[in-house]
Every structure is written in C-alpha cells, then in structure tokens.
Write a structure and sequence with these properties.
With 83 residues, the chain is mainly alpha-helical. Helices cover 75% and strands 0% of the residues. The longest helix has 21 residues. The mean pLDDT is 90.
Length: 83
C-alpha cells in the first residue's frame, strides 16, 4: 500500500503535462493489446496521408475550408442539442 501511495504522491508533484502523460501511459497499460511500435504507427500514417493527398489531387474528394467545417459542425450541434 505504501508503494502505491508513494507513486501517487510523486505523480501529483509533476506538472499537468507530465501527469497527463503518466495517466495516458497507465491507461494504455490496462489494454489487452500491447502498445504499437511508434515506427509502425508512423509508417501507417504516412501511407494514409499519401492516400488522402492522392485523393484530393486526383479530384476523387473535394477539400472544404476549415472555418466552414467548424461552422457546419457547430450548426449540427445546435440542432441536435438545441443550443
């Protein structure tokens, strides 16, 4: 019990950013699947980003202005939640 209390006490002395990182890693440790290798994740994202870029450049998808998307999202939320 003392070890857990010591760890918690030490963790609470960390900055908010450091505590968030510790919390995230602790939560990940509870998952059944092992954490993926960062190099593998980065490579998968590179493939996905290239696919998306190709889609935009080829005209298969059309990009939208970020501010327009934010306003459309806000409007959907207003309609759904009556805000």
């Amino acid at each position: 019990m003392a070890k857990k209390d010591d760890v918690l006490s030490s963790a609470l002395e960390l900055s908010a950013e450091e505590r968030a990182e510790v919390a995230s890693r602790l939560l990940l440790s509870l998952e059944d699947e092992p954490e993926e290798d960062p190099t593998t994740v980065a490579a998968a994202w590179e493939v996905e980003l290239q696919k998306r870029l190709d889609d935009v450049r080829s005209g298969r998808v059309k990009g939208r202005d970020g501010f327009e998307m934010l306003e459309a999202s806000r409007e959907l939320l207003r309609k759904k939640h009556g805000v």
